[in-house]
Amino acid sequence: MPTFRYFVAVGVGTAIALFYMKPSVSQDLPSLTTVVIGSGEQDTGTQGHRDTESSPINPSVPSSSSPHSPVPTPSIVQSPLVEPSLPTLDDLENLTPEFIIPSTEPVSLPNQTLGTPAPESLNPSANPLLFPTETEEVQIETTQPITLEQAIELARRNNRELQTARLTLERTEYALQEALAAEFPTISAVGEFIRSDSASSELSNRQPNPLEDLLGVMSSDDTVSTTFEGRLELNYNAYTAGRRSATILAAREQVRLQQLDVERLAEELRLNVTRAYYDLQQADAQVQISQAAVTDAARSLRDAQLLEQAGLGTRFEVLQAQVELANNNQDLTNAISQQRIARRQIAQLLSLPQRVEIAAADPIQVRGDWDLSLEESIILALKNRSELEQQLAQRNISEQQRRIALAGIRPQLSLFARYNILAQLDNDDGPGDGLTLGARVQWDFFDGGAAQARARQEETNIAIAETNFADQRNQVRFQVEQAFFDLRANEENIQTATLALQQAQESLRLARLRFQAGVGTQTDVINQQTALTRARSNLLTAILDYNRALATLQRAISNLPDSNLFDFP
């Protein structure tokens, strides 16, 4: 049975511990612990305490989480005890952490660039062949915070893959101009200046001619002649058995196919940049969560040391706290490493200059709602996706190629006209001219079956395009369904994670009070610290996974809001 002396020792130890006790480290990450209720006012809860004012997570603000900063060592700062306020159960439906700002803006669309344009300093060098040769040329000097809209704008402007697709489109347009040229006749001009010394004339001059001797005529020794001829030729393929029209249609479809490919790459780029931006946000927030976990562990270590000094704790509890602090420091180091990787990944995607990297300027928030049903989303995706249009364009190209192949064994009619002028420069006679008009019919009616074989190849390509269309249609539906289900699941997870975060905060507060009063254990505190860190990470993951699912669903639908395919993104 406890004696009076035991109660006196417990009371004195508790008083010493409470005197040196600093605030719960739940306050070290206010953006994850402060709760906004409905209209945005903080709930005072039932504990009689208010949370300190905090702002949404903004990783762009310089902090110890910078990728060029060493891993921070937490310091013990004593301050008055402040406990987080908790909402009632009736308010849990309206709970929204302060860094989750309900979005009232319209969902970002493929052709929209909202907000301030991206700085010109983020544009890469105009010389694509430039590469650094000195270490100073690749050393990061500037970290520029940008919004998601600015990142998408930079990607559309600077991404190399998209630039290559646009150049390919330009090349196919020139190929179409080449095909259209077949509708016009070809006109050519030829001029020939000929000076010849005839061997036969020279031999004939060497033989004696009795008649010339009788008449006293001298034989000419001149065997050189000089002539000039100019020709003007016109040719026109009047009938090509469908080859010309099929070539033009195939070129038009090729241009359309490449336009759709530019659209596809622009949509993929928008999705990839959005995902990379959310990865950067998650990496930045994870650094802050890890920092809070380190501060939590340092707080527990301090409590264990104070209780040991008061004779109420054990060395084992101090060692437990030291191990927890070391583990959290390691997690913080890994989080900073992932933050650096995320920054370099999006820098590569945006083709940034060598000495610049970016940080996320947007707060972590729910980006918007999806009001369409699953069935409406599927139908809209099937109408809009450029991949389906591409398969139809490829089918049309194969059909025209089949016509071109069969035209090779059908009659061809061409018209021609020639006008020439011939002048003999060795005599005084004037030049002569002539005009030739004609038509040519050519029919290669037998080529060993080569044309039929090419036609059958294109028929097979048509069947392949139709099969790919059916497969792509199923993939589009699955992508919409997968993104839609992920969106709904994460929408529920946000509510669940918000409640779990509040419960974890309260559990850690109670575990600390129990441990400081001597009725709890250090293991309880460590377990609740781990649970709080996990709850913070779960809420962060739920929000960003929701945003990722929303971006994926937008990509699966494409071409919002008017459901029309556009030629250029």
Characterise this structure:
It is a single chain. Helices cover 54% and strands 12% of the residues. Helix 7 (243-309) packs antiparallel against helix 10 (386-407). It has a domain at 4-53 and 80-106 and 122-170 and 251-394 and 458-557: Outer membrane efflux proteins (OEP). The protein has 569 residues and is of the alpha+beta class. The protein is built from 12 helices and 8 strands. A hairpin with a 7-residue loop joins strand 7 (412-424) and strand 8. The longest helix is centred in the middle third of the chain and has 67 residues, at 243-309. The strands form 3 sheets. Strands 4-5-7-8 form a 4-stranded antiparallel β-sheet. A two-stranded antiparallel ribbon has the order 1-2. It has a two-stranded parallel ribbon with strand order 3-6. The two termini are 81 Å apart.
Specify the CATH homologous superfamily of the domain at 4-53 and 80-106 and 122-170 and 251-394 and 458-557: Outer membrane efflux proteins (OEP)
Structural class: alpha+beta
Major sheet: order of its strands?
4-5-7-8
Strand percentage: 5-15%
* Alpha-carbon Rg, integer: 41 Å
Q: Any idea of the CATH topology of the domain at 4-53 and 80-106 and 122-170 and 251-394 and 458-557? A: Outer membrane efflux proteins (OEP)
Order of helices and strands: HHEEEHHEHHEHHEHHEEHH
Tell me which CATH architecture of the domain at 4-53 and 80-106 and 122-170 and 251-394 and 458-557 applies here: Up-down Bundle
What is the level 1 CATH name of the domain at 4-53 and 80-106 and 122-170 and 251-394 and 458-557?
Answer: Mainly Alpha
Fraction of helical residues: 40-55%
Question: How many distinct helices?
Answer: 12
